[in-house]
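Re-run requested by the PI after the first attempt was lost when the workstation crashed. Everything re-entered from the original request form. Ligand of interest: tetrahydrodeoxyuridine.
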Amino acid sequence: MADAQTAPEDLFDAAFEIWDRAYVPYSHYKVAAAIRTPSGRIYAGVNVENASYPVGTCAEAGAIAAMVAGGDRDIVEIAVLADGGELVTPCGGCRQRIMEFGGPHAAVWAGDLHGRRRRSTAGELLPLAFGPKAMASEPAPD
Ligand code: THU
């Protein structure tokens, strides 16, 4: 990554590699996400839908699950790739998920297959976010 404002094409490449594997028989809207952690590792995921529609999972949720399973817990930046219509933007639930592991300064990049890119931050996408500090006690480290 050259700097915080330069689109992370390595993350978009990682997302593009798996984008076509998204399981989307209902929406036909394929999404892939790739996360960079402070260690430099990259974790990716795609959306996986279900005949019971609410059970489907977003690409961001899949990438975060892979990150946690891989032993990492911090998001430096995340790239989300989809195609068609407007640039993709994480749903409300995924904004909360990204906030949990990235905090307000995590960079959230949206992109499409035609090279369009847009940067925002988790804090911009989810102002006044609910988090552990709102509760009496923060989660104990494990
Ligand atoms: N979706 C994602 O995976 N990530 C986003 O950022 C936006 C939406 C998925 C959920 C569903 O499978 C499909 O896109 C249409 O909403």
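Saved to the shared folder this time. Residues 24, 27, 29, 31, 47, 49, 56, 58-60, 80, 88, 90-91, 94 surround tetrahydrodeoxyuridine (CB under 6 Å).
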